[in-house]
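$ run holo --ligand "flavin mononucleotide" --emit tokens
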Amino acid sequence: MNIDLSTQTPALVYSTMAQTIMPRPIAWVLSENEGGSYNLAPFSYFAPICSDPPLVMISVSKKPDGSLKDTRANIIDRDNFVLHIPSWEQLEPMNSSAATLDAGVSEVDELGIELTEFPGSPLPRIKESRVAMACSLFEVKEIGNGPYAMIIGRIHHIYILDEAIVEQTAESIRISPSTLNPVGRLGGPQYTELGRIVTLARPK
Ligand SMILES: Cc1cc2nc3c(=O)[nH]c(=O)nc-3n(C[C@H](O)[C@H](O)[C@H](O)COP(=O)(O)O)c2cc1C
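-- output --
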């Protein structure tokens, strides 16, 4: 099948892209609500985009009523956020944190997720996280005709579970993918965990 996207509805275009560009990593983003509670939501339109400076982006749409998602509003208003890479063991709470709640209602409180101090970050991280990145807002770009905004964040600190670090020098770090065991997003409500891992030298 050869699909001409210019003749398709935005919903079909989304559904086709989401089920072909996969598996996608998931950014599980903690931000601060007005009033000081913490918001948590997953985003799989997520990518690293630069390492000098260290930048990542998430693409955030709007709520069904057209208002800004809490993550987007919180980051614009308060600048800082913590991006976690969820492990397979966190699949269910990560998925549950995508529920559309009223602004100010904390997914962290609703789901009973334990947080811990994150040295170098003004915000805490999820205690059970294996990777957490303390980020600040770098730039927001409205994109396309739809409700999307690309939120670009600058990473300041990265927490990595000690047991996942295999070796580290001044020039490189080797991290065990199977210890991090990240969740991958497929299309719709489907997820995957790591499959076979192969090592292949890069051609010169
Ligand atoms: C695995 C997963 C990935 C998601 N990825 C995105 C995404 O990339 N962009 C987006 O706008 N919403 C995405 N969503 C939906 C948001 O998580 C959902 O709208 C959430 O309620 C937003 O929360 P907030 O209003 O607290 O920011 C995703 C949901 C799931 C379960």
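-- notes --
The chain has five helices and 13 strands.
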